[in-house]
C-alpha cells in the first residue's frame, strides 16, 4: 500500500473494496469546517501534479476504483482516489 496526496494505492481486492467504501464516505471541504475530513491540497500546482501523476500511473495499466479528480468549484480540492495495481 502507498499514498500519494489523497490517493491510496492497494492490491488485495477485498481490502480495495472496503477502502473505496470508506473513502467514498469522507467529506471534502475547507479544513476549518468541522464536517470536513479531507482538506485541500496546498495549491493549484499540487493539484495539477496529483492529476498528472495519477494519469501516468493509469496509463501504465492501473485501474481507478474511485476517481476523486472531478471535483468542481474553486480551491485546490481533490477527493480521495483509490487505484488498483494488478499484481505482477
UniProtKB/TrEMBL annotation:
<protein>
    <submittedName>
        <fullName>Acyl-CoA reductase-like NAD-dependent aldehyde dehydrogenase</fullName>
    </submittedName>
</protein>
<dbReference type="InterPro" id="IPR016161">
    <property type="entry name" value="Ald_DH/histidinol_DH"/>
</dbReference>
<dbReference type="InterPro" id="IPR016163">
    <property type="entry name" value="Ald_DH_C"/>
</dbReference>
<dbReference type="Pfam" id="PF00171">
    <property type="entry name" value="Aldedh"/>
</dbReference>
<dbReference type="InterPro" id="IPR015590">
    <property type="entry name" value="Aldehyde_DH_dom"/>
</dbReference>
<feature type="domain" description="Aldehyde dehydrogenase">
    <location>
        <begin position="13"/>
        <end position="84"/>
    </location>
</feature>
Amino acid at each position: 500500500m502507498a499514498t500519494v496526496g489523497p490517493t491510496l494505492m492497494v492490491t488485495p481486492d477485498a481490502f480495495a473494496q472496503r477502502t473505496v467504501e470508506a473513502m467514498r464516505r469522507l467529506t471534502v471541504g475547507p479544513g476549518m469546517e468541522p464536517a470536513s475530513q479531507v482538506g485541500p491540497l496546498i495549491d493549484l500546482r499540487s493539484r495539477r501534479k496529483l492529476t498528472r501523476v495519477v494519469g501516468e500511473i493509469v496509463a501504465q495499466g492501473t485501474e481507478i476504483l474511485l476517481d476523486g479528480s472531478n471535483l468542481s468549484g474553486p480551491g485546490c480540492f481533490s477527493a480521495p482516489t483509490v487505484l488498483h495495481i494488478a499484481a505482477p
